[in-house]
Amino acid sequence: MTTHRDTWVVTGGAGFIGCNFVRHALATSDARIVVLDLLTYAGSLENLRGLVDGERVVFVQGDIADADAVAAVYRDHRPSAVVNFAAESHVDRSIDTPKPFLVTNVGGTFELLEGARRHFATLDGAARRRFRFLHVSTDEVYGTLGADGLFSETTPYAPNSPYSASKAAADHFVRAYQHTYELPTLITNCSNNYGPYQFPEKLIPLMILNALDGKPLPIYGDGGNVRDWLYVEDHCAGIATVLAKGRVGEKYNIGGGNERTNLQLVDRLCELLDALRPAAANAALAGRASYAELKTFVPDRPGHDRRYAIDATRIRRELGWTPRHDLESGLEATVRWYLDNADWCTAIARERYQRQRLGLGA
Length: 362
Known about the structure:
The protein is of the alpha/beta class.
């Protein structure tokens, strides 16, 4: 059996970004990975199919808000790092039902920090110097931007949704544990992710799957809300870079530098689908000439932030990370992945989400 120098606990590792990070870690490190995941609606062992072997990758089903479950993971696996992806992450769901975001995103992060503090106190020498707690957060904690400007690591927090408020609170707890207890923490704040294995409640997979089925493509408001898009593999590489080289106590913004309005993004997805699976050859489109004919404007999300954009200067300058994918190559790879993985799409959504409208606050 191979002896692994490091054991990383990856919370939320059966979710979208988490499972991509597990793949990245397996390909670029010799770390042993312990995935801790509750397997809520957006987390699935389908995302880790073929990876969990009980040796290099271990799966533990558990809730990060359960102090006993968290303590057991620290005790049984003695990690050299914790990477916290586990979170309720969909703004629309936070508008409809905010309490789970408080429980998981704030309470769960607290329990992970408490467990880490106790675990860290038992370490000495090289193990103590090596330990890191990396908390994965979002640019949404900064609020909204006007027509210009970028979010930097010094931008004041101004969360506008229950989701972003819960992530902001978690970020503050992480910072406080570093300052108060000298726990070696790191925080990353990313822009909007996209890519393989994303649950279809999010914009890009929802548009792809609805289009293929000939269903309406719901665009909130006027479609002018701007997001900075980051391919998930680039995000995972950024997190790994911060874990390896980041300065304890610092936070790093990870952004793709790919700003688009939602309408521009949907238009490009339709163009890609027209090229890769022509509308004329798709019986679900009932004679429509293009997937763009499915676009439908719907009432906006309450409190919808107008624009996000990340300044990733610090991670580029200090740690040498740069994204490998521009939006064009990333979107094409993403569309191809969903076209090639229809079985995953069916399995992941069965009895979990029927692509209904969320986030009206009713």
